[in-house]
Amino acid sequence: MSTAGTIDRPHTHDPKKQAPMTPSTSEPAGSATSDFTTTDANDSRQNRTREMQLQPEALARAHMHERLREAQRERRAVSLAAARRMQRRAERASLRARRALALAVMQ
Q1: CA distances from 55 to 18, 43, 77 (A)
Q2: pTM of the entire structure?
Q3: Neighbouring C-beta atoms of residue 81, cutoff 10 Å
Q4: Residue 8 class from Cβ within 10 Å (0-12 exposed, 13-18 middle, 19+ buried)?
Q5: How confident is the model over 64-92, as pLDDT tens digits?
Q6: Do the Cβ atoms of 23 and 32 come closer than 8 Å?
């Protein structure tokens, strides 16, 4: 079964075994450079493939950094809420002490 591959499902993923690109009739004559070499095309394909392979890793790293920043913000919010609770508790204790002192002075 020797069927030609399609764009979505190429026959091979190896750039060296793929059919060379032919200029289309709809493009202007001088649109591509005449000193085009296949090694440059293969290198750019390899670089693109390497970049595409590294994209999930970079995405995971960015996601991890975002989660770390989110956790740090959450910790700051929790500690700020605890500090405010302790401040209110201290203010209430101070008020009770002032009232007790005022009662003691009045008697």
Answers
A1: 24, 18, 33
A2: 0.44
A3: 10
A4: exposed
A5: 999 999 999 999 999 999 999 999 999 99
A6: yes
